[in-house]
Amino acid sequence: MTDTTGAPSGNRATSVVAPRPAGSVASRVTGTVRVVGAGLLGASIGHALRAKGVDVVLADMSPAQLRLAIDYGAGRAESPDDRPSLIVVAVPPDVTAAVIETELARYPEAVVTDVASVKLEPFRTLQQRGVDLTRYIGSHPLAGRERGGAISARADLFIGRPWVVCRDEETRPADLALVEALALDVGAMPVEMTPEEHDRSVALISHVPQVVASLLAGRFATAEDGALRLAGQGVRDTTRIAASAPELWVQILGANAGPVVEILDELAADLQEVSAALRAPEEPGARRVVAETIRQGNDGVERLPGKHGQNRRFEQLIVMVDDTAGQLGRLFGDLGALGVNVEDFRLEHSPGAQFGLAELSVDPAALHGAIAGLQEHGWRIAGTTND
Amino acid sequence: MTDTTGAPSGNRATSVVAPRPAGSVASRVTGTVRVVGAGLLGASIGHALRAKGVDVVLADMSPAQLRLAIDYGAGRAESPDDRPSLIVVAVPPDVTAAVIETELARYPEAVVTDVASVKLEPFRTLQQRGVDLTRYIGSHPLAGRERGGAISARADLFIGRPWVVCRDEETRPADLALVEALALDVGAMPVEMTPEEHDRSVALISHVPQVVASLLAGRFATAEDGALRLAGQGVRDTTRIAASAPELWVQILGANAGPVVEILDELAADLQEVSAALRAPEEPGARRVVAETIRQGNDGVERLPGKHGQNRRFEQLIVMVDDTAGQLGRLFGDLGALGVNVEDFRLEHSPGAQFGLAELSVDPAALHGAIAGLQEHGWRIAGTTND
């Protein structure tokens, strides 16, 4: 994993992926940041930036949502004198392009980014309308919660998460730096991709899994009670994301239809191949088709980042964190002060529990120092994973 | 959820689903229990029964596995004088029928059950061989771990889990009671089903989800690194079970091919319908197909038992439990002594963490008493979920 902190020490081995502790160090972004759309993502960006002392202006079509976000401290209301250096468009996918166009025209000095989960469609729509996109840099933080709205916003929503930034040939380096500074200030890891790369990637790791989980869970809607009583943790995990909101997903899937259709068709063919093998399980080769399906799945899941995957060469350190917004920031701040490089991060959390388990992947050589140092700072170490 | 404790008080409202605390009350099963196959399930049954004072005899084709299980305390080696009242066959699916036949012949007084995850195939195989199946009652505990073998066995593996018992017309009530006593003694909830009902049910809630998760994860085996870096908790959950062992699943899917094929074909058709809708998203009705797919998934996932599902009318109580085998037994024992009826149970657990979070669904009227009582018994309450 690349060192993305831009820490001034230049010492890659001892810097942390997440930024300096919230509130204790100045922000990287300069000037006022205007956030259009005060829902979960917009309000969370507001909270995270304000914790760094950034002046955040919030706007939203819904006066109620806007007042709620301001009441919760995600930013202030706009004023006619605002001269934002950066505008973050955090509105539903179907209005993203229109809002980007309006904001570019209204603030001719500002850099404009958006956080929509599809990147090619808004870009093409704006190009077709002949909009000058020099100051526009699309981006997408891979973060979210099951519940939406300003009321669910949290300053630590982006900590340790990838934030895709889509530059093009026209992009000015200073503008790119401003969008990457935004990602770093909220604790995310900037990842550069073309819009095409981004959309293919999220089709594979987000949009198709959503369709598959929804179709699988959809079969439970009409199933017998008796069958469902036997359900355990495995199928609960497999279908958890099927609880997602239909309105949003109709927009996302429609906007990224090309890459999604390609993978869905491949999957349908794969399903039929397994089905054919099981229909005649004694035929030569049939058992091999089934075995290869499971084995290939073993290989694939091994490659996912996180505790089951690529970070096998790291040690997992599990720290208890209270369920309050500032705790993760403080944890990453302490890790930074200890010179511990966090290679991967994951939060295990039961809704309603007063704390969660933060799983951190660290270099084996740094493990013991990290444990001792964190305990000195008052953190409770819940364990280490080492298999 | 049905009261399945068989508690002699007859007071359904104040009994717990899980049995009396391990070690503190006599077992329900009488006589010696012989467990054939000292892997994860067999050795875990041994540990749980021995904690209740039951005489457990272990047998395994592998002398090394057998010695390991005995060393860990799951039971004793067999002797020529053994007269088991109950035999539990816990061997791989492809040898289950043959071992059942051998055991029925060798111990003509014993009741024989098995724990294989498919129930119709071994039954039919034995019928076709003309074996008298009066003393055979197939069963299936819905429990497991990601790692197998005697070394991974735990006495609390079955606590709160369903244990399907397949009686037929020939089954003698006393024999059925003995198999249900086994399930209750290890903390499971007996559920009666026909073999056909069982196999259709597990195809839906276990076997098809396994195929789907494996096929989805299989696409990551050849994906670009950049795409996988964007993977988050959603896709990790959706594909977690893809880490399962190919050898076992070839046997399971082959043995339950009929019901699995039926659902796989329906899913393939569903995938193609969504794909067709996304290929022409502006056609009339196309967006509705996508929206209905997601909405139907919402409905289905709501029906799964557990925190997302049927138990909305209950309060969730989250208790910290140390990661030691006796802790869950002690917790359920204390809940029983407090007269708290546990409607559902789920354990959140990070591998390597020294404790887990036990989520218990209880009647809202019992919540405050449960919290106070558990705290008096020294339990740490991590929170309550109430949405």
Could you explain the architecture of this structure?
The structure is a homodimer of 387-residue chains. The first copy, chain A, is globular, with a radius of gyration of 22 Å. Chain A has 387 residues and is of the alpha/beta class. The longest helix of chain A has 24 residues, at 195-218. Chain A has helices at residues 40-50, 63-71, 93-106, 120-128, 173-185, 195-218, 225-229, 233-239, 246-255, 257-279, 286-303, 325-337, 367-376, and strands at 33-36, 56-59, 76-77, 86-89, 111-114, 136-141, 162-166, 189-192, 315-322, 342-349, 355-362, 380-385. Chain A is built from 13 helices and 12 strands. In chain A, helix 3 links the parallel strand 4 and strand 5 (111-114). In chain A, the strands form 2 sheets. In chain A, strands 3-2-1-4-5-6-7-8 form an 8-stranded mixed beta sheet, sandwiched between helices. A 4-stranded antiparallel beta sheet of chain A has the order 10-11-9-12, with helices on one face. In chain A, helix 3 (93-106) crosses helix 4. The model of chain A is unreliable at 1-24 and 307-312 (pLDDT under 50). Chains A and B meet through helix 6, helix 7, helix 8, helix 9 and helix 10 of A and helix 6, helix 7, helix 8, helix 9 and helix 10 of B.
